[in-house]
Write a structure and sequence with these properties.
The protein has about 400 residues and is mainly beta. The chain has two helices and 27 strands.
Length: about 400
């Protein structure tokens, strides 16, 4: 008798949908069902098949019933999964603890910005934060960890990123500064890309105890904080300061076709002044879930497409995730799942939107499977995401 091939070993905690009920099934590239299983609590789930395949489609059905009696259900389809794949929860690798806490008071005179307009950074977490703006002064009471330490203050002054650094801050300190004495960032860039609007932020980080991943990251500057102020602009200036182990840069560009987002983590000095925000065109050719196709002007690595189905008894979503050039065949839903949720009809799902990712360095499609919204596996990465209007 032929020994079944293990297709996937899955920790149910990797499933992003928080529902008590998950069905997981595998199909081959033609949509034929290879195996179907139901999760039992947090018990590891294994799918197998007597028909051997190199790659398969992983389908996850998550459902729950609301207090109104309506079923809320999501289906995720990941194509091109390698046989024998294992998915485990990505736990952190250690980092900075909440040690040596202490209360510190700051008063910054000459301040005319918005609430939460000044960012305070040291090597620890906050346990408590209170602020008040009155009489042209920004007053903040912060319960900081890892004191004594140097504290970095960053903000905008007339639309330009500026900073001040206070050395050796300790518990109980009252520190009064004048914002007119803040220093402009060492590295700046105006986000003057074509389109309707641009925004961005930069995080600075210290590596964890293993000197690999960021253990703690801090906002150095965030142009979204200019929203609603006299300095609000479609072409803001962002920047960064030297001295951090690693950085995370994010920039968004809204253009007629939709949004382009740029992410880079690691050392950013080599591309900070030169990265571009490409313009793109996107057109759907077939919006049927079972035959979804599109045209896209740019090179990309993988995409995610989203579909919805609404009725009086159920609100359902279906997402498909696939690498570039991979034809997606949905196939039939297993009878066991249809018996539990007879409202699932593939033809009833309507196209909602699509997101395309172009990976330059770091995690690619394989690492993205079941990792949407989770921390990346690579400590350094660079990629673009394209979000067409439709």
């Amino acid at each position: 008798m032929e020994i079944p091939q293990t297709l996937v070993s899955l920790d149910p905690q990797t499933i992003s949908s928080i529902t008590p009920d998950h069905w997981v099934y595998a199909t081959d590239s033609n949509g034929f069902i290879l195996d179907v299983q139901k999760t039992i609590g947090s018990e590891r789930l294994i799918l197998s098949s007597v028909r051997r395949v190199d790659k398969f489609n992983l389908n996850i059905v998550s459902a729950g019933v609301g207090t109104n009696g309506k079923t809320y259900l999501s289906i995720q389809t990941y194509t091109d999964v390698e046989a024998g794949a294992t998915f485990d929860v990505r736990y952190g690798t250690g980092g900075l603890g909440m040690t040596n806490p202490g209360a510190v008071t700051f008063k910054i005179n000459g301040y005319d910005g918005p609430e939460h307009g000044i960012l305070f950074t040291n090597r620890g977490f906050y346990l408590d934060y209170e602020e008040k703006i009155e009489g042209g002064s920004f007053n903040a009471n912060i319960q900081m960890c890892r004191l004594p330490s140097d504290v970095l203050l960053t903000t905008y002054r007339h639309g330009i990123p500026v900073y001040a650094k206070v050395m050796g801050v300790k518990e109980g300190d009252f520190l009064e500064l004048d914002m007119n004495n803040f220093t402009p960032f060492e590295h700046q860039r105006k986000l003057d890309f074509k389109g309707y609007s641009n925004n961005g932020w930069v995080l600075g980080g210290y590596l964890d105890d293993n000197r690999k991943f960021p253990g703690l990251q801090f906002h150095l500057i965030d142009s979204y904080r200019l929203s609603g102020t006299k300095d609000e602009t479609d072409q803001p200036v962002i920047g960064y300061l030297d001295g951090f182990d690693t950085y995370l840069l994010y920039v968004s560009n809204y253009q007629p076709s939709g949004y382009v987002s740029y992410y880079k983590q690691g050392q950013i000095e080599d591309t900070f002044a030169s990265f571009t925000m490409p313009t793109f065109t996107y057109r759907t050719l077939n919006t049927d879930l079972r035959h979804f196709t599109f045209q896209f002007s740019e090179d990309f690595t993988y995409y995610s497409a989203y579909f919805n189905s609404e009725s009086a008894i159920a609100s359902m979503t279906w997402s498909i995730h696939a690498p570039k050039g991979k034809k997606v065949i949905i196939g039939k839903v297993p009878s066991q799942i249809l018996a539990a949720y007879p409202m699932i009809r593939t033809e009833a799902f309507q196209y909602s939107n699509c997101s395309l990712t172009k990976v330059i360095t770091g995690d690619s499609y394989r690492e993205s499977i079941l990792g949407i919204g989770l921390e990346p596996l690579s400590p350094e990465f660079e990629y673009y995401t394209f979000s067409p209007n439709r």
